[in-house]
Amino acid sequence: MTPTRDLSLFIVGAAGEGIQTIGDVVSHALLRSGIPVFTYQDYESRIRGGHSSYRIRAAGPNAPRHDADVLVSLNPSAAEQYAHSLSTGGLILGELSAGSSGASIPFRELAKERFGVPILANAIAAGALGATVGLSADLLVTSLRDRLAKLSPEKLQQNEEAVRLGYQRATEMISDRRRIEDAGESNGYVFVSAHDVLPLAAAAVGCRFMAAYPMSPSTGIITAFAHDPDLGVFVEQAEDE
């Protein structure tokens, strides 16, 4: 397939299934290839049974798209909930219901069979998504090592093997990949979270006090203020909502 200059990727699933790890690993690998990315996350209520998503806009304008060229699903109900978001000719990859169209890769089952650790489904999914968009397995593993640097050597090795397993499975199954055009070098891009930038901007324009109850996605802002006394912002954490 001819490389594209604009690609929209959705990773969807329930809270606790490791969506952020998948998104971070693939985003960092894209940056290392010299491809600018813009990411956006939404968090649905876990109590009410909602699903969360991590969206990556690669190489296009700095804004999320509302459709997905590749939709990675960590469970069948998430695939059904977000299926309407597929672009024309888009691909659903991952955990699918029986009879659903797409590239069915049972991430969780593979993780249990190969490693005995179901949560490694997310590393398998990261490898599968990376293969689908034309990233190299070695580049994905490098990004994974950075993302999970605090893990023990044994657990890190398991995650690396899981990435390569997902990469191999997707390579064998998917012939029509959504390949992103590789710039061939990093171009000096860095991956910066709004949690890092917003506190700096707020302090720069005179913010000196923040009172809040910690809850995603705002927890990172409170934490940044509290952990950096040089910002000069007093933080009050409310004990309840």
Q: Which H/E pattern describes the elements?
A: EHEEEHEEHHHHHEHE
Based on Cα principal axes, name the global outline: globular
**What helical percentage do the residues reach?**
25-40%
Structural class: alpha/beta
The helix count comes to 8
What is the CATH topology descriptor of the largest domain? Pyruvate-ferredoxin Oxidoreductase, domain 3
- Computed Rg: 19 Å
Q: What's the CATH architecture of the largest domain?
A: 3-Layer(aba) Sandwich
Specify the CATH class of the largest domain: Alpha Beta
> What's the number of extended β-strand segments?
8
Write structural notes for this entry.
The chain has 241 residues and is of the alpha/beta class. The protein has 2 domains: 7-173, Pyruvate-ferredoxin oxidoreductase, PFOR, domain III (Pyruvate-ferredoxin Oxidoreductase, domain 3, 3-Layer(aba) Sandwich); 194-237, no CATH class. It is built from 8 helices and 8 strands. It has helices at 19-32, 76-82, 107-115, 121-132, 137-147, 153-173, 194-204, 219-227; strands spanning 7-13, 37-42, 52-58, 68-73, 86-94, 103-104, 209-212, 234-237. Helix 2 links the parallel strand 4 and strand 5 (86-94). Helix 1 runs parallel beside helix 4 (121-132), helix 1 packs across helix 5 (137-147) and helix 3 (107-115) packs across helix 4 (121-132). The termini are far apart. 36% of the residues are buried.
